[in-house]
Amino acid sequence: MSEGKGDIALIGLAVMGQNLILNMNDHGFTVVAFNRTVDKVERFMANEAKGTKVIGAKSLEEMVKLLKKPRRVMLLVKAGSAVDDFIAKLVPLLEAGDIIIDGGNSEYQDTVRRCKELLAKNLLFVGSGVSGGEDGARYGPSLMPGGEPEAWPFIKDIFQSISAKVDNEPCCDWVGPQGAGHFVKMVHNGIEYGDMQLTCEAYSLMKDALGMTCPEMAEVFGDWNKGELDSFLIEITRDILKFKDTDGKYLVEKIKDSAGQKGTGKWTAIASLEYGVPVTLIGEAVFARCLSSLKDERVSAAKQLKGPSTTRYEGDKKAFVEAIRQALYASKIVSYAQGFMLMRETAKVLGWKLNFGGIALMWRGGCIIRSVFLGNIKHAYEKNPELENLLLDDFFKKEIQKCQESWRKVVSTAVLLGIPTPAFSTALAFYDGYRSERLPANLIQAQRDYFGAHTYELLSAPGKFVHTNWTGHGGSVSSSTYQV
User: What phi and psi values does residue 77 have, to the nearest 5 degrees?
Assistant: First the structure.
């Protein structure tokens, strides 16, 4: 092949990388494939890529020579030092205006740093979230590119061609500058943690409170997937509950109840603390996984710590299943509202202009949290791009109101039966907190001023911080005022 015919290079031939390459090839793009272990390139070319237009490169130098200008190089390698190592090797081989794209699950702060460092070398950097797993990568992922805006016109055609489509619209658009793409992907993954935990709590209530079997629960999830909860995670939960092992028993009941995590949910929770946004549901979903990992301790504690005497729901089973559905729906609304709150605040602090309706569209197809529900979020932000909170949108206000009685019944019943529902419970607590004109934080401010002279504001004089000598023997000097 002659020099300079490749449209894009992709480094990293794990399954996601291979599938993205084949997806690009299907859409008429010539891809140059490279892997640090070169024999993996040879195996890929001899097997999965056989008969395609994909070109295998045996070195980075060869890979770069095979690319059209401006050169586009996409990395799908492990986040962290591996990305920096490849960037360091690529920089001497590239020219001004060439583009490096990181498609891994990198921390957004790393993407901000890389954008600045590479711009100083006249190179354009893009950090793109890629969601949808192996199947999505092969047939249409959700793509969330952000970084140096000058790069977008040169990668737009490739990215939007290979992405999932909903109503013929690509689930991919430019997110924003610097680390915006990876930040939005991080929030996506945090919401994914929340969605999974909420689904597990619905499963737990049906199994433990109602004594339902796997086929019964599979049927319920199948019914739910035909309505407001129509989504990828509800769909696969139905399929998982129906799946039998080779011995004819349901496989899900044999799996150890100890959940793993790769860190993106934790990053979302940390970001929420850094920016002071109460993303409580994602935080609880992360902590629920941490608690699940204490399996040995829980087995021991189960023999020693007693709960309520009644652990089964005695009322109308069918009505309670419907109440669980409504509680799940209401809690999901809160979860997404919190995720968009975090993106809104971060964008404000970092000076990013994010298109929230566009983000909802990107998530409607191809990704793990894809659902019909996201169409309503898209419409909410199209109607009002400055919407302060999803809970204040007319549609979502009405939906929460419809579900509220059932939601409260499910949470209170779970408490009485001793069934943990941390995500359902924190979603409801957030809703009640957010709709409260007054919270008991006035007492916290008084306590802080009492023991640390941290000052407080009076309702009658907003913006003016004062200190009181509560004991009569304290001083009148206050601590420096600060916001937590």
Answer: -125, 170
